[in-house]
Amino acid sequence: MADTTATIQMMEVLNGGNVESSMDVIDLGAFIGDLSIEEDFGSDEVSLEGLQHELEECKDDDVVANILSKGIKLRDYTKTVEKNLREVELDSIQDYITESDNLVSLHDQIRDCDVILSQMETLLSGFQAEIGSISSDIKVLQEKSMDMGLKLKNRKVAESKLAKFVEDIIVPPRMVDVIVDGEINDEYMRTLEILSKKLKFVATDAVVNTSMALKDVQPELERLRQKAVSKVFEFIVQKLYALRKPKTNIQILQQSVLLKYKYVITFLKEHSKEVYGEVRAAYMDTMNKVLSAHFRAYIQSLEKLQLDIATSSDLIGIEARGGAGIFSTRREPLKNRSSVFALGDRINILKEIDEPALIPHIAEASSQKYPYEVLFRSLHKLLMDTASSEYLFCDDFFGEESLFNEIFAGPFGVIDEHFNAILSNSFDAIGLMLMIRLTHQHQLIMSRRRIPCLDSYLDKVNISLWPRFKMVFDLHLSSLRSANVKTLWEDDVHPHYVMRRYAEFTASLIHLNVEYGDGQLEINLERLRMAVDDLIMKLSTQFHKSKLQSVFLINNYDMTISVLKEAGPEGGKIQIHFEDVLKSQTTVFVEELLLEHFSDLIKFVKTKASEDPSSSSEKAITVSDVEPLVKDFASRWKDAIELMHKDVITSFSNFLCGMEILRTSLTQLLLYYTRLSECVKKVQGGSALNKDLVSIQLIIHEIRKFSRTF
């Protein structure tokens, strides 16, 4: 920039200040002069040292290679280069001269900018000084603000603590009026809670104990505490006395009255444990006596509704005939009192487990009587509902579950006394098993309610029932084992009443064991089955004819199977056993029945029909051997079948069973006669008897007549 300015100034001087007029006529060559390189070949200072090295370095240079290839002299080439440089320099100067106006304008603008920037620098320096001063002021204000905020926060904390202290320790006049003269209602309960908080505050806060305010307030708080304790004690005692009034609904009084004021108990427990103990003892004594009296009255009413089912003489193997002595009481024959051993409608009690308890005076007015398991369910339904309500109330009102056991010690004693008396005189095995199942259901109900207060009691009941059931069951078992066959035997092939008792008794217990699978009960039933098997076989031997023995056994087995099937689709091992012995006795009876009418035919078939008639032995079958049999059968086979039919109809109690046995007998007869016919055909000369042989198809047709009857 300085060179350009100097050039311009020089041009102004040369042209008298008119640059533009002289730019077109100036001769730069004349002004600069003729540039030349002096030749000094004769100088002694020229040295060729290093020339070879430089030539080696430049041998690959394109320009040097081009010069050398054209044979141009270095001096000439140097002049040419020098000339070119001079022309370039002159062109550059000419360009500067051409742009001189723009350069001058640019120079002026730069100078103006420098002035403006200098002014702005001065202004900003002033601003910076003022901002520094303001920043110092702001910092001072910030420190003052933080100090004031901290003081305000501390004062608020102090005010809050002081206000809370004053609120907790002060005794408002309204609170005094309510505690001393107010009625015990919702407002009194709220005031009592406030008093409790103040009492806890002065008793537990260490700061309060050192304050002067406590000396003024503490006596007043103590007097209020004593007054409140005295007042609520009288109130609760009056409510407890209301529980003793006859016909009082205890649960409604507990839920609608006592629970409404349960904070009274909390207050007494926290601020007067002695008075709380008195209230607790008073409630326990009241409820113990009230509930004991209620259960005693209810049990006495239930006892009037009891229907006696069985006595010690109502056993399976006991003779049904009652005594006829002077002092004997007339009673219905046991064999007609099937309810002793049959479950019947008594099973419905398990379906009525959630039904309300019996109302004794209503049942008594209708002259209804119930088996003891109905009364047992009703009593325990009342016990479960009462115990559940009382347990929840004790937990909610007193916060003590243990109080329940003290209250129910009396009711449990009343129930145990009654139950033990009933149990010691109970010989109803079905009723005992029903009570065992009811107890199990009651345990499930209490478990679903999640109330454990009756767990130990129900376990005790269950433990009492099982030994009694086992004892009564063993009495039945002993009655079968020690039964007097001669006194039990009746000249009747129909099912014996002892067997019917056994079947109904076993079916009842199997039915009651379906959902429980009690293995011990199954073992006892198997023992009972073995005993009755032995007894029924002994009774059958009292018949002199083997056919009657079979009929007697078949009738009893068939009846037993029918009763067992009524108990459920699967009679188990016991039913399978009786089905097997029934098949065995049916086979025996069929043989006896056929021998009675076709003895010669059967003996022949069994002894000789298997021999070869064409053999030459002395025992070979001849026409004379089979002719009487063929003619005898042809002459009376229809009459014999009719007699068999009548015999079966009169012998068997179960018509279907009898017809099945008849069909089996006729089928067996057909097999015997078929073998006889085949034997006749093989006998030499047996063709002469063809006219007397009965057609097999004719016999089958006759058998089908009887088959259609069932």
UniProtKB/TrEMBL annotation:
Key words of the record: Golgi apparatus, Protein transport, Transport
Pfam families, alphabetized: Vps52_C, Vps52_CC
Residue intervals of the Vps52 coiled-coil domain: 95-268
Lineage: superkingdom: Eukaryota
Keyword Transport: yes
GO function terms (MF aspect): syntaxin binding
Cellular component, GO, one term: cytosol
GO biological process, alphabetically ordered: endocytic recycling; Golgi to vacuole transport; protein transport; retrograde transport, endosome to Golgi
Record-linked InterPro entries: Vps52, Vps52_C, Vps52_CC
Main location class: Golgi
Subcellular location per the Swiss-Prot or TrEMBL entry: Golgi apparatus, trans-Golgi network
This protein's name: Vacuolar protein sorting-associated protein 52 A
Organism in which the protein naturally occurs: Saponaria officinalis
Phylogenetic classification of the source organism: Eukaryota, Viridiplantae, Streptophyta, Embryophyta, Tracheophyta
